[in-house]
Amino acid sequence: MGQSEDFYSYWGKAEQSEDGVHYHLLPYHALDVAAVGCALLEQHPYYRAVFTRVMGGEVNLQWIPFFLALHDLGKFSQSFQNLQPALLEALQGEKSEVSYSTRHDSLGFLVWKDYLRQEFIGLDLLPTSGMGRRAETCETLSDLWMATVTGHHGKPPRKEGLLRDAFDEKDLHAVDSYTRVLIDLFLDSNIRPLDLSVSDFKRDSWWLAGFIVICDWLGSNRKWFPYHEETVDLVKYWANAKKQARWVIEESGLGPSFATTPISLEQLLLLPKEQGASATPLQALSNRIPLSQSPQMIIMEDVTGAGKTEAALLLAHRMMVECGATGVYIGLPTMATANGMYRRIVPIVDDFFDRGSNASLVLAHGAREMNPVFQQSKLGAHLTEEQGYGDGTEPAATWCNQWLADNTKKALLANMGVGTIDQSLIGILPSKYQSLRLFGLLGKVLIVDEVHACDAYMHKLLGNLLKFHAASGGSAILLSATLSAGQRKSLLDWFASGTGAERVVEIERTGVDDYPLLTHFSDGHTGEHVVATRDEVQREVRVTTLHDITDIVAKIEKAISAGQCVCWIRNTVPDAREAWKLLAERLDGQDIDLFHARFCLHDRGRIETAVLDRFGPKSHSDDRQSRVLVATQVVEQSLDLDFDLLISDLAPIDLLIQRVGRLQRHTRDQQGNRVNGEDRRGIPEMIVHGPEYSETPDENWIKSMLPGTAVIYNHHGQLWLTSRWIKEHGGFNMPDDARDMIESVYGKEAQGEIPDGLLDNSLDATGTASAEASIASLNMLKLETGYPDVVANQWWDEAITPTRLGDMMNIVYLARLENGELKPFRQTEKYSWQNSSLRMRTFWINSEADHPEIDEETLRRCKESLPGKGRWGVLLPLTKKENGQWEGRAKNEKDYIKKFSYDSGSGLLTENDMTERRENAAESD
User: Fold this and answer.
1) Beta pairing partners, 329
2) pTM to 2 decimals?
């Protein structure tokens, strides 16, 4: 081997097997990754256009595969090579005592900064001060490039370590000779020296970082790029790698998909063309409003039943056809609402894309059915799991397996994704692999539903996400029943700042008559369009407040005696269980259902399906008659449910508006059968369960009656303002009263009308909201800083990234201990562990308890079978007791051992719940 080919003596990938160590030479792996980058740019016009802008012209795109081929320079270090001592000796004929104390991604940046950068300057590849640019600026730009490239393991490299501690002279010579071959391979005479705006590059580096991650993942797949140990000329290897990469893009499901011709309202509503569809005013406006070729944001405020979802989809598809958007991601506040939206999208999604595009639809959590017209992104079926490097750093293919097998992250790479808003918010927080989430949104229309559900912390994060998305050239559509003027302006300002708009967004339509409203920002201008309301959703709702539980039970008894179906929405899980047990005792023999968030995924899905069957759009009188549902907030958003009578614990007025959307939602006759025309069930009635209204409430006004509500909705002044509005009006007319209701509770003037007894609490709540917004500002990434300049040690593991404030949550995996073996609590055909999981506050379940009754090997095997090998959740083994209950133990956040039980009727019970149940049982005896 000649002196210039010493880079062939370095391995890049290795795997131990029974017949020895198999390896892939480092230059080959680097070229595999670069080839994937070339293939993605060739096949994706949108990516090519974005990165042409980033690079200052198409001729400079070759810099991208060049830098991709440098992404693993740190593996040329003796410290990395010594992770496989036998390979080091076989390839280089020597042994080493050098330890691997700095990760290879950080070593890659180190060898660039302290060695290779000067070589580039000597070769005139970086402009110098003599070329009209300050040398320091050029060095800064090249450093940013290399920090982005070497940060391919999900976060920027640490800028630490000493070159001579990891690299010897032979290693540096190999780096030099390898780089010179790459220069000849990639950088022809037409390519200009790297000369870009530092500020522009920082802004664009977020999406470049995600692009590099996906290139490394695909290029690290041994099945797609088999290990190669023999010496091959790099020019020849490069030609073969490019051919292979083109096939890999198609095989992986990451090829481009293209929009169909404009979609019709009949297609969205699943109506036969000959039947036709009557567009709501909002939908009609969405079909005709002029769109811009620049990033644009649309905010839709309208009542439930106005067809906001269909209007948003009409607009999104128009943006794909007319403006070049490549797909859609729909973010919702909860898993239940995501499930509901997914059901609505599945039947129509094949109308969005050309049939030959091989487009994908993915749900962003464990319930991951796929539309049969589409193919699931094929990455998970082809990935192999490499062995770790030995330092706790996971190689690309390992992360690829675990990450893409978890649909909560995979959804953002799909052509159309439906999931929680949290999955996209992680993209603007310092979380491992956040750049891939941002890259997944690149080119897509971001639709966010139920925007009013965001608290101060999430509102700030959403604003920052909109800024990032606008900066990437993306468009957004926000949906809400109502927003205050301040909320609407804030979101518009965030998006406008991402487009580079210099002036502050001005809004004018803030009066009580300015509703329903569509607000459209584009090209630095804001248009506000007041929308008419169709007759079907104009209605009067009678609202009554009841304070005594016995009065509510009597009201329910009267309703079901008349054959009506009833829903009682409680603000906390314990309150929901209490009401469910009370009604089950009082209404013996009646069908009483319970629905909340503490059921494992399988049971929750079963209950959700049953609830939709009984109270959904296809339900009939036989399904609904005299049935009662007790639920928490899981039913207030996006689930298409219809009840004859609705009862709700007192909540902020915007949530009551949202909840009342489940009251007489569909037009039905008195028996509950669907009919055309007007509803025949009489004036809708909503019962609000709360304390008696008082002009002079004391500080315990809400706490004494609904202590759980007082914690969940901590601004007691706004609860009082809600109660006052109900007292004064006795009901409301929609949509006429919507704007007044919101401003009467959230407007600036209203805050000055909060009584003295609640003032301290209200000031505390306002301060908490302000603090939450400040925490969001501290936590979130800054667009202008750029990916490479973020301090790497500030980054969180994705499992603990705080997309929401308040109590931290853990994924809890329920396991049955039977015959000495641990098995998923719910055995299903696929995804048994996911179907046996639920989320719990770390206040209750923070870590696993010791289990001396379980064999250590049994525990180890069980954890190996968990998603992510259990590193992102807590295993809760359950044993069946003589009373038929399944019970187990776990540690809370104070490290105390607590008992838990689970059953399919009431979900996971905490030790407090279990004690209460036993006491109640003893009393009944």
Assistant:
1) 417, 446
2) 0.86
